[in-house]
Amino acid sequence: MNQSILYIGTYSSPIMMGTGELYRGKGNGIHSLLFSQGKGTFFSAPSVIPSVNPSFLHFSANRKYLYTVNESDAQTSSITAYGIKDGGKLYLLNWCQTGGASPCHICTDRQNRLLFSANYGGGSISVFSLRKDGSLGIRTDLVQHHGHGTNPMRQEGPHVHHVFLDEDDTILYASDLGLDVVNAYNVDYSTGTLTLIPDLCLHIQPGRGPRSMA
User: Fold this and answer.
1) In angstroms, rounded to a whole number, what is the distance separating the alpha carbons of residues 115 and 122?
2) Rounded to whole angstroms, how far apart are CA atoms 102 and 30?
3) Count of other CB atoms within 10 angstroms of residue 41
4) Comparing C-alpha atoms, which of 13, 169, 155, 164 is closest to residue 76?
5) I need a surface site. Which of 7, 64, 68, 155 has the fewest CB within 10 A?
6) Gap between the Cα atoms of 45 and 203, Å rounded
């Protein structure tokens, strides 16, 4: 049978959304189900790994590791790293605080050297080194965006929504809903730091609020 495992991130505790609405999450963490690709149906009861607001999940390029955000306030927001056993069972590697509120998106380079986190509430980008066993190393950079947009309800400050590496893993693009800009950064893998490339930054029509990229 041609089957896969589907991992599902959820909100598992109350969180203040960008609209100012308090959302009371009803999930329990990371849910996983067996999925039949041929039939397009699920055929197992969900298993759950307890986790706080794992609202975005990301596989390493080699599919050996799974990274999740833990979306919360600036003091408790974090990234968690899991290993994946044969059969798809997750096991905890470690976790690290982001230093910025409400991480909502993460990505890694293809060689699994660095992890990048878009911190929506904090309007910042966190960078972490990655160890050979897939676990998180130290936070190597925290880039803070500044300013505001034209919409006082949603653009009162910076809101980094998405981080995206180019095909060579040398430039990181970061869309900021609050500033109407897609910033471009050179990635230094020797130091784990980002440097803004002003000529490659894309300024969007005021009020449009860029979110995700593909």
Assistant:
1) 17
2) 17
3) 9
4) 13
5) 64
6) 46
How remote is the C-alpha of 187 from its chain's centroid? Answer: 17
Six-digit token string for 56: 């975005």
At position 102, the amino acid (one-letter code) is: S
Three-state DSSP state, 198? helix
Is-above-0.85 flag for pTM? Answer: yes
| Two structure tokens written together for 134 | 């897939």
Residue holding tokens 């730091």? 193
Please report the pLDDT score of residue 64 as a whole number: 97
Torsion of CA 191, 84, 43, 106, to 10 degrees: -10
- Cα–Cα distance between 179 and 168 in angstroms, integer? 26
CB neighbours of residue 4 within 10 Å: 11
Q: What percent of the chain has pLDDT over 90?
A: 80
Strand partners for 141: 127
* Distance (Å) of CA 148 to CA 157, 167, 178, 183: 4, 30, 6, 14
> 174-188: b or e for each residue (b if 16 or more CB lie within 10 Å)?
bbbbbbbbbbbbebe
pLDDT-above-70 percentage for the chain? 100
How long, in residues, is the chain?
A: 214
Residue 25 CA, distance from chain mean position: 18
Task: Give residue-wise pLDDT tens across range 112-155.
Answer: 999 999 999 989 999 999 999 999 999 999 999 999 999 998 99
What stretch of H or E contains 89?
A: none
